[in-house]
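Lay summary. Proteins are chains of building blocks that fold into shapes, and those shapes determine what they do. In this project we predict the shape from the chain. Here is one chain we studied, written as its sequence of building blocks.
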Amino acid sequence: MTRSRRLLRQALCGLAALGLATTGSAAVATAGVAAPQAPAALTTALTTAGTDPAAPPTPPPAVPRVEPGDLATAPYLGWSSFSMQVYSGDGRWITADQLVAQSDAMHEKLQPFGYDHINVDAGWNDGVDEYGRPTPSTSLYPDGLQAVIDHVHDNGQKFGLYFIPGIGPEVYEADLPVWNAPGCSTGDIVKQPLTKADYWGIGWALDFDDPCTTKYIDSVGALLDEWGVDFVKFDSVTPGSGIGDLSLDARRDVAAWSDALHSRGIWFELSWALDPRYADYWKEKADGWRLDWDVECYCENEALTTWPNIARLFPKAEQWWRSTGPGGFGDLDSLNVGNGRMDGLTQDERRTATTLWAISAAPMYTGNDLTRLDAFGLGLLTNEEVIAVNQAAIPAHPVSTTGKRQVWYSLQDDGSYVVGLFNLGSTDADVTADWTDLGLTDGRHQVRDLWARKNLGRFTDGFTATDVPPHGVRLLRVTPAGAATSAVNDDVLQVGYGGDWQRNGNQEVAATSQDLAVTVVADGDEPPAPGDTDARVTRLNDDAAEISYSGSWSHSTGRGLGDHEDDVHWTEKDGDAFELTFRGTGVTYVTERDESQGEVAVFLDGEPVATVDASLPAGTPRESQQAVWSASDLADGEHTLRVEKKSGRFMLLDRIDVEQENLVTPNAIVVPDDGAEATRVELARDPGELTGIRYGDTVLERGADYTVDGSAVVLSAGFLTALPAGDTALTFGFRGDAADDVHTAQGAAWTDLTFTGTGVTWVAPTAPDQGPVHVYVDGVLAETVDTRTATRRTQQELYSVAGLRRGEHRVVVLNGSDAPMRTDGFRYTR
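And here is the predicted shape, written in a compact code that computers can read:
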């Protein structure tokens, strides 16, 4: 997803360079959200001037990543009380004495390294004032909470409190006047009929069609401002927090609180397990949001957390990294690594957790008792090089999440790379980062170990961390050698956008492969009956790496009940879900049907599409491999299937069937084992996208084993005759857009990159519906490129320049017509 606030600023800043009036409006948007408004004159000027290549408009200037005054410029560092409330088994652990002790310990041990938040979780209040606003507990704070807040402020720290949506029944029933809002009362602002507002059913939902409701929320904001509160954690936010079907929807609460807090300079953090389908909304309204369930293990007086609660965050970080960063940060919850006697983690696991938080640009707030930090934990929390990675605010992403040895990386603004080498397995292992996987050309690049704080030397092809312990990590900074080239994908923060851009939206083309089934029939044998050679279905077993599970799922194998591959995933908890992002034209959910199962909610591309009942009447025999829901004729491209448990004792997943575009037609052929004839196979993509054909480990030779004729591949008679009798598969490989993603804009739009180096290349697809674009280097028109071709082609080098003076440069690619413009990123040479 593109960054909506950044897009709007770029569009507005473009006016100054163009000297245009600010009348009218034109959409500036990100995928799936309502667009902020930008001046229509800008759209008109960029489009009409772009039709005359001799006089294109001046490109807009680069702008900061966040708006002036935005609080979320970097993740915050601090402490939160909830882990200790859980660990101690006493929700009232948050006494004045405890909070003062934590503040003083932070001031002594952590504050010199940037930690400055003291955040108090649930249980701090015990009543309301005459306006229905919460009041602090008099038993927890006998001298008043204000005395604690003042102490925290005197220590040079910020103070935070906890809230949830809605208002309590007692406030509703008391019908109290709303502060500074004549004619408004708390009895009038509750939605009718009465509806719960939060996951636990503590309060009543508010009626935001009544203007008195936002006045009440604003009155709470005014009270917090009067107290000097700097931070609010807003919990049980839906969609998310265990409820994704919109039966609870706190987005209007979030909007009202956002206005009340941000107008007063108060940081606004959302919790918990926010629904990623609404990522743009969370980023527009908040400064941070939790990505998953509580990190605490609820192991009273034994441990704060456990390794599985850390390991489950890796797929969450991968899912969210494009949607976090300056303007709003993904929150991984409390970083409980400060004391080995209470963390519940080994030292290697503690270092791994700290690394994940740091490279994900997640708020680093610990939940330990700060008065009891051990030397190892203090060293983790105060490593200045690791803190600098976190505060750079550039989320890392993985090369792949399919295995236990994972490489995560991010390109930094100074041109270096931060690289995490994680061993999520249970035995020692070597973990290797190949430079090319990072988008970096080979060369003698300098590697520094950030945890060891030492340079390791220069490495040419990549770096291998040997014997990384189970659940361990190595954290590196890689400084490229001179003249090295970096690929900058269209998703990363360094790439800017202006205009109405959308990421993917079925405009992308993915790299893929498809098998051609070849059956070689011996003389005298009966050839097999032809099947449907135009259909292509991929079966994903329930343990496929592409499927992600949220909640408390288990894996059952060796069932002997007729399941696909004799296994299933299962859960008993309502709200648990599985999710698959796939590319194709159809999808089918396959499970068992049984009296112990119930209803599940099905979402496709973020929208609820069905409620499916997988139950059978009592006494009915179990049915395995049942296709209980399917969708077909989808637009060919990326889709997301999510299925969530609603009722019944169990929910199961056996497999998911994905229908995909058939790229070779026919996709199955039969040939005789002697005297085979040359066979023609039609390609659904431009033949220039074919990267090769493999037979097992053998790469077929073009011109000998096959030729390309127009839109088809012709397999030679000699090659087919040499194949052994029986079934054989030939794998056709096809190139796609870099990282299988692309950005598309319609009409007035531009993309840019500021880099330090000597050359740059713009990489983008071409297609029949595209047109001319203008390329500028350092504000000067360098070339007008025609991006229209007869077929869709990926990863085309459409503009390149070398030999620039080494230093900072900016390349801008500006659409020159009303036609769509697509971009896949840049490469720059140092």
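What the prediction tells us: Residues 1-51 have pLDDT under 50 and may be disordered.
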